[in-house]
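Fold it.
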Amino acid sequence: MQDPSVTMPRRIDRLAEVSDGYDAIFCDIWGVVHDGLAKHPAAEQALAAARRAGATVVLITNAPRKAAGVIAMLDSFGIAREAYDHVVTSGDVTRALIARAEGPVFHIGPERDVDLFEGLSVERTQDAGSARAVIATGLFDDETETPEDYRDLIAAFRRNDLPMICANPDIVVHRGEKLVYCAGAVARAYEEAGGTVSMAGKPYPPIYAEAHRLAGTTAASRILGIGDGLATDIRGANDAGLDVLLITGGIHGKDFGDRPEDPAAVGRVLAEKGLSANGFMAALG
């Protein structure tokens, strides 16, 4: 028997079924538009069609990099510029937090993320003892490391009571078929150790405020949020008052068990986490 307290989202076969009702679409990138290795052609085509129908498409990502770097990555995957109007990243909105940090700062993350500091007058150090703050953009080597590898470093930061700024709240993402840890996993470990962490990416308000600005609209009722991350995309869109299209075949695919296309099963998972979605589909198309 269906639990009357569970709201069942509508199963959607094609984005075009619902996109005409919105002025803007805020769409996640990693897990929806690409898998870290290759693009999802159906998603690219669906977003391009929504733009042709009049919607402004803002790609909104927890990538800890500036938008220009993410656009270059999209280009490398062959994702057409016709599929989106703007890109806003967690890196973009986190830069304001970094600019206010008292340096020097210790950077946890790969070399590819250093463009996050471009143009900011903040000193970086790799000496945990002299740092005044920690900036986490990822793991140094997310192919081999886990948050457990940062136990000693986290203890050193806690001894000096350093604040941490996390540029990517995601815990894990898919890279092809492989799950890799993100900066959010390190930040979670730091919070569990008693540290203080600040974030501006999804699900937090700053990144949505920037997406609103780029889209040229403040009417939440006229925006559709699309994503696969329950704690980031869906939580953030819910908190921002947006309608939501959940992609069930992404990072949380296993959460829906053997009934990923059953509205009752999807609704139950959402309700258990205090979330809601207007519709869902296995993959954007």
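The longest strand covers residues 56-61.
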